[in-house]
Design a protein that fits this description.
Elements lengths: L10 E2 L5 E5 L2 E5 L12 E4 L2 H12 L2
Antiparallel strand pairs: 1-2, 2-3, 3-4
């Protein structure tokens, strides 16, 4: 759903993720992401690289 949102400037990341700027942080969401309340396949970081690394750590990669 997020990848089709015209108001969200997201780019594709590794493993089918989407990366976008959320406020002053980058957010990475996985392909199964529904919402922060319902999903755990997301992570934030001060940089794009940090957000990807945080996502990988959270997913156990």
């Amino acid at each position: 759903m997020l990848k089709n949102d015209p108001d969200l400037e997201a780019e594709r990341g590794p493993g089918g993720t989407l990366i976008f700027l959320d406020g002053d942080q980058y957010c990475v969401v996985g392909p199964e992401f529904v919402s922060i309340e319902e999903s755990d396949c997301y992570a934030f970081g001060a940089t794009r690289e940090q957000a990807i690394a945080n996502y990988a750590l959270k997913q156990g990669a």
